[in-house]
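Quick start: what a row looks like.
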Amino acid sequence: SMDESMAISALSALAQTTRLAAFRLLIRQEPEGLAAGDLARALGVPPNTLSTHLGILVRAGLVMGERRGREMRYRARLEGLRALTLFLAADCCGGDRDRCAPLVEAILTPSCPPRGCAP
């Protein structure tokens, strides 16, 4: 479970344009993730700058990197997103499940067609 300092770290990591864009792109690319170079090109960011941003997201528990041969591949850490979401919504409507239902439904309803999202 997430505590307040972890939540602040995660929110701080996301409170920057490039990092938020990177995280949202990685969410769309689950479970395959993206190679660091492809991610940099997609975002129009120099690789060394992106590396710094990815490090912040990794330390915040929102992204993970895995080496595949000579390339680093990055994925969204869905567990980190889950923990942050639960932390933020833990006491939703004083625990009234019926009142929380629209929030849960909105989270669970994909915003893309059943065949998946285009990159």
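That is the whole record. The helical segments are 4-14, 17-28, 36-43, 47-59, 78-89, 97-108. The radius of gyration is 16 Å.
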